[in-house]
Specification:
With about 900 residues, this protein is of the alpha/beta class. It contains 30 helices and 23 strands. It is about 50% helix and about 15% strand. Strands 8-23-22-21-9-18-20-19 form an eight-stranded mixed beta sheet, sandwiched between helices. Strands 10, 11, 12, 13, 14, 15, 16 and 17 form an eight-stranded mixed beta sheet that branches. Strands 1, 2, 3, 4, 5, 6 and 7 form a seven-stranded antiparallel beta sheet that branches.
C-alpha cells in the first residue's frame, strides 16, 4: 500500500470523513472497506495498515526540541531583566564613550551569570527527564486486539492499526477513534474532549443523523476518553495524529493548570522584581543628585543598573529546577515515576492522604477462602456458579474474579466452561455493585448468574436455595437476618463476602438489562481474604510521624474496612457510609470530613466530593488508588498517586506512579517534597535578605560618601561569587525536625524576613564603611579623603572599595550558613559538604582578589593586616546578632523558613 497523503485541517480531513462514513456504515460495509472480520488481521496485514494509515502515536506527545528546551532554561523574568541591563549598558558605552575607553567587563560578568544559571537548569531538566523517561517505559498502556494468527491478545496501543478489531472494558482508555460494533451497557467519559462531566452511552448500531460533527454520533468513541462501565467490540478508524485528540493536542496543551507551587514561585519572582523597581530609581536619583562631576548622571545610571543586578536572584529558576530534578532523580531510584515535577513539592505539602483500600493498602492478590451455602456450609455448587460468572464476563476482571478462576482451576473445575456458552451479560457498575452473565447449557437451558455485594444482592433476591434439586424457599426476614449475621462474622475476621444468585430465564440474547436482576434465588456466598501489604502499617506510621493524616475512602463495606484498618493501626472509631455522605450538604460534609477517618461504601463521585471538600477546608490532599472508581478523586486531589498495576485511567489521572509494592516510598516522597520546599525557600529568603541588606547599605552610603561606595563592576563581581556559592543549595542538608511538618507554599513571610535579617548586614556594612573611611584608609594614606590630592584619593577609594567588597562577601556568604537553619550553625546543624566547600572557596577567592592582578584590574588595593582583625570582630558580632534575631523571628512568626 502507498503512503497516505500529507495531513490537513481536521474539519476538511480525510480522517474526519472516514469517521463520519464509519458511523453511518453497516458492520458488513466496514469489514469490506477495511478488509477485516471479527477474526482480525494477521500481523503482516496490520503492519501494512500502519504503513498506509499511520502509526498510533501522537506526534505532539514527543518532547520539546533542543532549541525550545534551551529557550525555557534561559528565559525567565530574571534573565529578561539582566538582558535589558546588558542592552542598556552596551548602548550607554556606545553613546557616551570612545571606542578605546569602552569596558565590557560588566557585560561579560552579567552574561556569565545568565550562562551558569541557564546551563545548569538545562542539564538538571535533561537529567530528570531522562530518568523519568526510562521509568515511563516500564509503564505500558495496552488494549485487547483480535489477531488472526495469535487470537485475542493485549498489545501496546502504539501497535494498533486502523481497521483493527478491539475489545473495550471498564477501566480501558479508548486507544484510537473507533466505531463501536457491539456494545453492552457501554458508558464512556469524554470529558477530556468535550468537558462533559457525565458519561455518554455508546451503541453498536449504524447512525444516520446527518451531523457533520463526529461527537454527535453515539456509535463513535474517541482516543483519550475512558470506559466507565460496560464492554464493547469496536473497530479502529482513525489512529495517532488523525484522531480528534491528535488534532487538538496542541490546543489541549495550552490549557495546562497552573499549580499553587508555580503560582507561589511566580508571586515571589514578581515581588522581588517590584522591589528592585523601587530601589533602582532611588539609587539613581540619590547618586545623581549627591555626586558631582559632568558624568554624574551617566555614572549614577550605570551604578543603579549594577544595583539592579545585585537585587536580581537570577539563580532562582535554576535552584527551583535543580531541586525538583534532584528529587525526581532520587525518587526514580525507588522506582517512582514523577509525571509532573511540580507535584513533588505538593507531595511535601500534603497533610492528608486519602486512599482506597483494595490493591493499595491491601495486596494485589485476593485469596478465595470459602464458598458457602445460605447456612454458611461449604458448597462447591456456589463456586461453580461464581466461576461461570467470572469466566464469561468481558468487563474488567478484578482481583476477586481472578481469585475465583484460580481457585476453580485448583479444584479441577476449569473445564466447566466447556459445558456452557455465554448468551449475554449485564456489566458491573459502582452504583449497583453487582454484575450478571447469562449462560446456556448444552440443552439450551438458560440461567442468569449474578454476583455482588451482599446488601445489593439481597435487594434483588426474593428466594433462597439450599441444595440443587430442592425447590427454592422465600427469603424471609429470619433468613435475611441469619445471612447478614453470618456475613458479619466473616467481615469481622477481615474477609470480604460476595453473594451469588441465579434464576432461570427464557429471554432472547440481547434483551437483558438491569431490570432483569429481580426475583432472583440466592444460593450462597464467597469469602475472600484481602490481606494488607506488608509495608502498609510501617508506611502509615511513618506518614503520621511526618504530620500526614490518613483517611480511607473505599467502596467496600464498613465491617471489612474496619478490620483491615485495625490490622494496619488506623483509628476506626469514626466511620461514615456513602448513604450518610449523600444525605449531607456540602457545608455539613465539610465539617464531618475533619472528624471522620474511614468512609465506606462510597461511589466514585462521593470519593471526589470528599477530596474536594478537604481541599476547600485548606488541606493539601493526596489520593492513592488503582481502580476506575479512584480516577475522579485522583484528578480532584493535589497529588494523585497510582500504585502497582492500576487500570489505564488511574495511571492517566495520577501525578505519581509507584512501580514497587513497598508503600514506604510514600515517606520518601513526602521527605523529598519537603526538602525541595526547604531548599527553595531557603535560597529565596537568604538571597532576598542579603541582597536587600547590601543594596540598602549602598543606598545609605551613596547619600553621604563623596564617591561611589562600590563601582558597578564590584557589585557584579560580588554577585557572581555569591551566585556560584549558592549552586549547591539544592543538595544542602535539611534539619530532621523541619521535615516532620507539612510545608505549604507561602510567600507572605519573605518580606518580613527581608526586613528583619537584611538590615542586620547593613549595620555591619555601615560600620565597615566608617572603619575604612575614618580609620584604616586615613592611616594608610596619611589623612582624610578631602585633604588628599586627586591621585591619592584614587588609592583611598581603591582601598575603601576592597575593604567593603571583602566584608560584604563574608557577611553575604556566611548568612547562607546562619539562616539555613533555626539551630546554631556549624555546631547543631551543619550544611552539606558540597555547600560548605563552595562557600568556603567563594570566601577564599573573594578575599584574595585584592592581592592579585585581577584585583588591580578591578581597581582594588590590598588591605593592611590590621583590617583582618577588625573583619574578624565584625563577622563574629554579626553572627551573634543574626543568631539572636533568628530566635526572635521564630518566636514571633513560628518558624524561620
Amino acid at each position: 500500500m502507498a503512503k497516505k497523503a500529507t495531513k490537513i485541517n481536521y474539519e476538511t480531513s480525510e480522517a474526519k470523513r472516514r469517521l463520519l462514513t464509519a458511523a453511518s456504515a453497516s458492520e458488513q460495509a466496514l469489514f469490506e472497506q477495511y478488509e477485516n472480520s471479527y477474526g482480525g488481521y494477521d500481523e503482516e496485514t496490520a503492519e501494512n495498515m500502519r504503513d498506509y494509515y499511520g502509526k498510533n502515536v501522537i506526534t505532539k506527545q514527543k518532547g520539546h526540541s533542543l532549541f525550545k528546551k534551551l529557550f525555557d532554561a534561559f528565559i525567565n523574568p530574571f534573565t529578561v531583566v539582566l538582558f535589558i541591563i546588558v542592552l542598556v549598558s552596551l548602548c550607554m558605552d556606545v553613546i557616551f564613550k570612545e571606542a578605546r575607553d569602552r569596558d565590557y567587563t560588566a557585560v561579560i560578568i552579567i552574561l556569565a551569570m545568565v550562562l551558569i544559571s541557564g546551563l545548569l537548569r538545562f542539564i538538571q531538566d535533561a537529567r530528570s527527564g531522562a530518568a523519568a523517561e526510562k521509568l515511563t517505559e516500564m509503564v505500558e498502556t495496552t488494549i485487547a486486539v483480535q489477531r488472526s494468527d495469535t487470537g485475542r491478545a493485549e498489545l501496546p496501543i502504539d501497535e494498533l492499526a486502523a481497521g483493527d478489531i478491539i475489545y473495550l472494558a471498564a477501566g480501558d482508555m479508548v486507544p484510537a477513534d473507533v466505531r463501536v460494533l457491539q456494545a453492552k451497557d457501554l458508558f464512556v467519559s469524554q470529558s477530556s474532549l468535550t468537558g462533559e462531566s457525565e458519561p455518554v452511552e455508546k451503541f453498536g448500531a449504524a447512525v444516520q443523523n446527518g451531523s457533520n460533527s463526529p461527537l454527535a454520533y453515539n456509535n463513535l468513541a474517541f482516543m483519550g476518553s475512558n470506559v466507565i462501565s460496560g464492554s464493547a467490540i469496536a473497530m479502529a478508524i482513525a489512529v495517532g495524529d488523525d484522531t480528534m485528540l491528535g488534532r487538538v493536542a496542541g490546543q489541549l496543551g495550552l490549557s495546562k493548570t497552573v499549580t499553587s507551587f508555580e503560582k507561589g514561585i511566580s508571586s515571589v519572582s514578581w515581588l522581588l522584581i517590584r522591589f528592585m523597581m523601587v530601589m533602582v530609581p532611588l539609587v539613581f536619583l540619590v547618586n545623581g543628585l549627591v555626586k558631582e562631576g559632568p558624568d554624574r548622571w551617566v555614572n549614577a545610571l550605570l551604578f543603579a543598573l549594577s544595583v539592579a543586578v545585585g537585587l536580581t536572584p537570577e539563580m532562582l529558576p535554576m535552584i527551583v529546577s535543580a531541586n525538583l530534578a534532584k528529587s525526581a532523580v532520587a525518587m526514580s531510584k525507588h522506582k517512582v515515576i514523577v509525571k509532573n515535577l511540580n507535584s513533588i513539592q505538593n507531595f511535601g505539602a500534603m497533610d492528608i492522604l486519602c486512599t482506597d483500600k483494595t490493591g493499595t493498602l491491601t495486596q494485589d492478590r485476593v485469596i478465595l477462602e470459602y464458598s458457602l451455602n445460605i447456612h454458611g456450609e461449604e458448597d462447591n455448587r456456589v463456586l461453580r456458579k461464581a466461576f461461570l460468572n467470572s469466566f464469561h464476563q468481558t468487563g474488567l476482571k478484578n482481583l476477586m474474579d481472578i481469585a475465583i478462576i484460580n481457585h476453580a482451576s485448583e479444584t479441577q473445575m476449569i473445564d466447566l466452561w466447556m459445558n456452557y456458552r455465554k448468551v449475554d451479560e449485564i456489566p458491573f457498575d459502582f452504583m449497583r455493585r453487582r454484575m450478571s452473565v447469562v449462560v446456556a447449557d448444552q440443552n439450551d437451558r438458560r440461567k442468569m448468574i449474578t454476583k455482588g455485594a451482599i446488601e445489593e444482592m439481597l435487594s434483588v433476591c426474593t428466594y433462597v436455595e439450599y441444595n440443587e434439586g430442592v425447590p427454592p424457599e422465600p427469603l424471609t426476614d429470619e433468613l435475611r437476618y441469619e445471612i447478614l449475621q453470618t456475613v458479619s462474622g466473616y467481615n469481622d475476621d477481615g474477609l470480604r463476602v460476595l453473594g451469588i444468585a441465579q434464576k432461570t430465564t427464557e429471554a432472547p440474547a440481547g434483551s437483558f438489562s438491569v431490570a432483569d436482576e429481580a426475583d432472583m434465588v440466592l444460593i450462597g456466598y464467597l469469602a475472600f481474604l484481602d490481606p494488607p501489604k506488608e509495608s502498609t502499617d510501617r508506611a502509615l506510621i511513618a506518614l503520621r510521624e511526618h504530620g500526614v493524616g490518613v483517611k480511607i475512602l473505599t467502596g467496600d463495606n464498613d465491617v471489612v474496612t474496619k478490620c483491615v484498618c485495625r490490622q494496619v493501626g488506623l483509628d476506626v472509631e469514626n466511620i461514615m457510609l456513602g448513604s450518610e455522605v449523600e444525605a449531607l450538604t456540602d457545608d455539613e460534609l465539610a465539617e464531618m470530613v475533619e472528624k471522620v477517618t474511614v468512609f465506606a461504601k462510597l461511589s466514585p463521585g462521593q470519593k471526589a466530593r470528599i477530596v474536594s471538600l478537604l481541599r476547600r477546608n485548606g488541606h493539601v490532599v493526596g489520593y492513592m488508588g488503582d481502580g476506575i472508581n479512584d480516577a475522579a478523586a485522583m484528578k480532584e486531589a493535589d497529588v494523585g498517586i497510582s500504585v502497582d498495576n492500576a487500570v489505564d485511567i488511574a495511571k492517566e489521572s495520577a501525578h505519581i506512579i509507584l512501580l514497587e509494592k513497598d508503600l514506604m516510598v510514600l515517606e520518601n516522597g513526602v521527605v523529598e517534597g519537603r526538602k525541595t520546599y526547604a531548599n527553595i525557600i531557603k535560597y529565596i529568603k537568604m538571597t532576598a535578605s542579603s541582597n536587600f541588606g547590601n543594596m540598602f547599605s549602598v543606598l545609605a552610603a551613596s547619600a553621604f560618601l563623596p564617591f561611589l561606595p562600590m563601582l558597578p563592576i564590584h557589585i557584579l563581581a560580588l554577585n557572581l561569587i555569591y551566585d556560584i556559592s549558592c549552586l549547591t543549595v539544592p543538595w544542602d542538608n535539611v534539619d530532621a525536625e523541619y521535615l516532620k511538618i507539612p510545608r505549604k507554599w507561602d510567600a507572605s513571610s519573605i518580606s518580613k524576613f527581608m526586613l528583619w535579617i537584611g538590615p542586620t548586614s547593613s549595620i555591619f556594612d555601615i560600620t565597615t564603611y566608617l572603619l575604612m573611611y575614618f580609620i584604616i584608609c586615613p592611616a594608610v594614606f596619611g589623612g582624610a579623603f578631602h585633604s588628599l590630592g586627586t591621585g591619592v584619593q584614587v588609592g583611598f577609594m581603591a582601598l575603601f572599595h576592597a575593604g567593603w567588597f571583602v566584608e560584604s562577601l563574608w557577611s553575604q556568604t556566611l548568612v547562607i550558613h546562619m539562616i539555613r537553619t533555626p539551630k546554631l550553625p556549624f555546631i547543631k546543624s551543619r550544611a552539606s559538604w558540597q555547600l560548605t566547600i563552595l562557600t568556603t572557596l567563594g570566601i577564599a577567592a573573594g578575599t584574595t582578589i585584592p592581592y592579585t592582578p585581577l584585583g588591580a584590574a578591578l581597581e582594588f588595593l590590598p588591605m593592611p593586616p590590621v583590617y583582618f582583625a577588625w573583619l574578624a570582630g565584625t563577622i563574629l558580632v554579626y553572627m551573634v546578632l543574626v543568631t539572636s534575631l533568628k530566635k526572635l523571628f521564630v518566636k514571633k512568626y513560628g518558624e524561620l523558613l
